[in-house]
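lol ok so funny story. i was supposed to be doing the assay writeup but got distracted and ended up predicting the structure for this chain instead. priorities right. anyway since i did it might as well share w the group, maybe its usefull for someone
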Amino acid sequence: MSVAEPAGAESLRRRNAAAVVRSLRVDGPGSRADLAARTGLAKATVGTIAAGLEEAGVVRELEQVRSGERGRPGQLLTLAGGRPVGLGLEVNVEYVAAVALDLAGTVRREVTRPVSADGVVAALAEVARQLAADLAGAGLEPVGATVAVPGLVDGDDRTAVWMPNLSATGTAVADAVDQALGWSGRTRVTNDADCSALAELHHGAGRGAGHLLYLTGTVGIGAGIVDDRRLLRGARGFAGEVGHLPVGDPAARCGCGRTGCWEASVGLHALLSAVGMEEVGTPQETAAAVARAAESSADVREGVAVVGRWLGRGLAIVTGVVDPGAIVLGGYFAPLGDLVLAPAADELAATLASSALGTPDLRLGELGTGSAATGAAERALEDVLSGTSDLLGA
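and the output, tada:
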């Protein structure tokens, strides 16, 4: 910021730059006149902002176009891609993952690594360290980092207050990534289902849905809720903690120590128990092995169907509360395809009290293991997309 430039003017400049970038990201390339019309900014303001963004390497020009028969041709602007990038990471019972996402929505780097439950924090820090070095070698630097975790996170966006399947509460995750990146107090932590909901909304099966329920499918079960295309987090950020609702088999014991939790009937371990198989890697790899076994085994198909029916029953209860237009089943559910989707849809329709008014569109997630990390990367870009951070200095 220039010494002579008032703080208020600097804040307005950042917000205007963010408005131009959001328009290019959501609505696609446009001329300076188009961007002025989309954002409501003056044409001269857009011209100044666009010049600064070009100099910073955030936008670039496309071919000349004419808006009419007369007049000088305008230059289409588009996001250049590559700079800046948000770093999203995920820590889970079975694996850690990382995604580097640029403003254009392009995944620049992606890593998934199976781990043991007692070594996830160290493995996460190592992945962050290696990815940061890789990005630096390519001339890219993260503007922020967010870690998706399977549990509840305090309103400070750093403190994990409850993770029933992992021993990593407090600020251990945030501190480990900060140290790996050479930062202090900059890494955010957020719920994995919330992150996956954002990822599927912007990049996957949730595109076009204004009201979305995303359900994770790993050892634990959680939900991300999107209302009018905005993430619904609740008063303390705990909205969507559905895995421990008492809507599962009353006799099934959960990892939290209680019985009857929904995830004890529909989580990955419940699936493996139902089909009599062992884990073979990530949840998605394990589910793919189950799907292959189901091709020749009626017992495996019925085991998956049992899980699907418990899934549909719980979805009916959650749907009655949040009324989503679409439900995206992520994690291990996606490789199972219709094996789990069909019984879940049937049970959802049969159980939902308002099914006469229509049931939500039940979809399989498209982003696989990287969904939570991709959504975390979206959150890592929030400061530049809101104008809190300076794009013109990117």
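The CA atoms of residues 100 and 108 lie 5 Å apart. The chain has three domains: 7-79, 85-194+373-393, 209-365.
back to the writeup now i swear
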